[in-house]
Design goal:
528 residues; 6-stranded antiparallel sheet
Amino acid sequence: MREFLVRKRMRVLSTTRPSVILLLIMAMILPAALSQEKLKQDVTVTAVEVPVRVLHKDEIVKGLAKDDFEVFENGVKQDITAFEIVSRKIAGVPVLAPSPGPTKPRPRLFVLIFDIFDYTDAVGEAIDYFFTNIFREQDHLAIVTESRLLNIEGVRSAGALARNLKETLKNYKIISTKNILKAYDDLQEESGRLLQELRGEGGKLSNWDQAVAQFYDNYTRIWRIYRSQFIMPDVDLYQAVLKRIQPIDAEKWAVCFQQRELFPELKNEGPLEKEINKRKEGATDPIDQVKSRQIQSKQWQLQQEFDLAKNFPSDRLKNLFIGSGITFHLILMKSLKTIVSEDFHLREVAADYESCFKEISRSTGGYLAFSNKAQDALKEASEKEDYHYLLVYQPKGPLETRGKNIDVRVRKEGVDVYNLKQYMKLGSPVMTIADVNAGRQTLRFSLKNYAMVKTGKGLQGAAAVSVTIFDGQFNTAFAEGKTLDLVKDEIHIALNLGRLKPGSYFLLIEALDKITGEKDLYSRLIEL
């Protein structure tokens, strides 16, 4: 295997914009290699299992029989050969069929999603409850925050996992929100300065329109960063997560902690908005009228930026979860963000995200709560019954179409039918950062499972790799990146960290497969 030792300085990433790197945090926690798990093989389809959930006015419909269902594949009616009623919940040991020998509870896979701006004590209490009362040693775990995967590897005991997750999440949130909080402050200062200029307190402002236009441009830029980081979900990431976990034979659950997102919006009757509108309405000179129309256009564009509905991938995200056999529990919390300003108030800006996750929870039989008592809500979610029907049929169509385009109908009026079976091609394994080892002078890690294509020189791949290390004050202490040519099945990378002082640091490694576009990132606290 080829050994890469980076001796010269790689391309330095900007230390003034660490959030650009932080937007890419992604890593995976699965306690054992997939080769050691009982995998669902992609073989000739002789039987298709279709989980189906039936609701009437948001309430579960129980007691249906096989004859109440019809299954169609590619428009062709299928014979239901087996039928089962499934009732399960996170809490407690599931009831198993009688067995001559001892039985073990079926392994479970949990996807914990933290769509939060602030790390709070309530979140920490919920994490402690999860690892103390819910998590079992044989369970699998994936953690998503800001639509990125977060790594807390290194231990398997529940107590240590809880401590690692709380510490990593707390540190990550401090780092990830550092720049956006500064942007809030800068926006507040800029609005105050602009107001003074418009009032003529600093002298006559001849190019008032340019000053206002620049303010709206900066406002839009800050909003776009916030929207990308905290609101718009990375559907490709969720698809990659589901592709990784789909082969694992386990019950699959998701628990999403969602804070209602808020963002500073100009008050309609605030001093700055009034002054800008006065300038627009008082324009009588043709040149000033042109300026006013330009400013009005800027205001309209900003309002359009706040409209997420037209670009929000609700259906795609919903279908991914529904089709993956995951029961989705949603805990909605109120954000603790506050703002004291004459010109701004905080408005809710994530209604589309929230509505999408509500529908996912509803259609997958999950729990939904509005509560800042996250621990109590999680306890109730663990007791929520997931009741659905399992239909089995032997497909009649061509081999290449079996298990696709499934339609389930129920002979009952006024019900909503959710077919939880969707075809998802596994594809090849995604690129993985592995074997991370941070010593006093050197950081070492490996890249595996990347794509390679045939070239005139043989099989080749390419990966963009960046490493960022933050100190105890969450300042960037080290940042380097480089695109690597890959000619072997596995590559080893070593970086010299000799210039860093001994102490605790927060490490982020990002790797982008240039052929497939798949990403993997690794993050954890390290000691140097």
